[in-house]
Predict the structure.
Amino acid sequence: MSAVTTTAAPGPDGATSRLGWALADSWTMTRRELAHWARQPVEVLVNLVFPVMLLLMFTYLVGGGRGVPGDPTEYLVPGMLALTMAFGLEATMLAVTQDLGKGVIDRFRSMPMVPGAVLVGRSAADMLQSVVSLAVMTGVGYAVGWRWHNGAAAALGAVGLLLLLRFAMLWVGIHLAMVAGRPEMVTAVQILVWPVGFLSNVFATPASMPGWLGAVVEWNPMSATATAVRELFGNPGGATGSWAAEHAGLLAVLWPVAIIAVFFPLAVRKFARLSR
């Protein structure tokens, strides 16, 4: 564990505001997580390379996006960007369970620091890695022929929706990691990511599926983000005319907000009850 320094809690009349104290502790925890990147470069590289391998496989071997008008990569790449926001959570979950198993979190909780700083630091580091993953995937998408057509503002909006989905998935992962408690349980929990990821319109349009399955797929939170991102990028979306497809932008905001509203307080409450 890297050395972590903390400052004493400010008193009511202290010069340092409580907000400043909270930000300082959170930044300390974020730096701790970032320091792990330098010591574990292989793990970081694997998390970056895995979605790239999936994109190349579905572009050249499996044939994702087939049947959609135009270049199939313009359907597939935005979907893969959405899927990337679900992958890599196992690294966060493992980090949380390892800290629990080694007593690191108990030690932090005994220090004069903001209790939530540990969770904020973990989430901030994860979001930074997600930005890097999006940059890498965007570059690979350009290399295989994908383009966006609606300008920089719309592209930034698409990136914002992708990161919002990641932030929501992150709190699901943190909560489930604390529930699992042990690294060996993470494998069982992370299997849940695969049905959510593949039971979506990332690789194929709902119109190409059986009616009941297509309806389920359209209401998947990842499908909403993928469809909204395609619209913002100006890529073909394989729209079916359903309410979910026509209001994908709205659902791409509501779904993550609802997930955060449920799992953020659950994670905070679970963290507060540790070692009681």
Residues 1-15 have pLDDT under 50 and may be disordered.
